[in-house]
Amino acid sequence: MPRPSKPLINRDAAVQASLEIIDTEGLDAFSLPRLAEQLGVRAPSLYHHFRDKHELLAEVALRVAGPSRRPRVKPGPDWPDYLIGISLNFRQSVLRHRNAAPLLVTHLPRVRFVSVQEDCASFLSASGVPTELQVRILEGVQSLVVGAVLMEASQPPHSRSSAAGHVSPDTQPHLSRALSANHLTPRRLFETRLRDFLYGAVRDHAGAADEPTRR
């Protein structure tokens, strides 16, 4: 049988089909035989494009994380808006593919985080943020963002009142009242949490710098 003049699959098509399977059937349902079936090819043919399943899922994780779009914020006193903008873009991209979110922990190449952090460190420097504070900011934002997004992705989309899942006023009266008093959407709550951390880190750093003066 002659070879087809055009390959039946390519890397991009395989990654997209993998993501579609995970989106519709769940991460546990994904396998190379299942992907081959989806693409209409034999499973061994996938090894012409990927070394193994791990390499394929790393590409899927990169697609879930989305492109690193830079917010239109100039260096200066509003530098927190730059980090918040990047974080919101990441959240939006991941929540489009909730079933695939765990791949961010298991398969997303570390170089992706490093490249984003280098860009942010450059922006912080240009904004006059003290160098000794930058790692605290970058690591804190990464932990907050990835943790918050993974938790949100593990649950069905929810409104303000269901942010903590099912809560009964009879057995959880204090939490129930707190949820009723919350007027922030999940997106706004995510943004506010980041903003509180960033400005709090700056205030704490400034206070520590002033401490010897008070003595």
TrEMBL record:
GO terms for molecular function: DNA-binding transcription factor activity; transcription cis-regulatory region binding. GO terms for biological process: negative regulation of DNA-templated transcription; response to antibiotic. The keyword NAD does not apply. Residues 31-50 bind DNA. It comes from the Bacteria. Residues 8-68 form the HTH tetR-type domain. Keywords: DNA-binding, Repressor, Transcription, Transcription regulation. Residues 156-179 are annotated as: Disordered. Pfam families: TetR_C_1, TetR_N. SUPFAM superfamilies: Homeodomain-like, Tetracyclin repressor-like, C-terminal domain. InterPro entries: Homeodomain-like_sf (IPR009057), HTH-type_TetR-like_transc_reg (IPR050109), HTH_TetR (IPR001647), Repressor_TetR_C (IPR004111), Tet_transcr_reg_TetR (IPR003012), Tet_transcr_reg_TetR-rel_C_sf (IPR036271). This is TetR family transcriptional regulator. The lineage of its organism: Bacteria, Bacillati, Actinomycetota, Actinomycetes, Mycobacteriales.
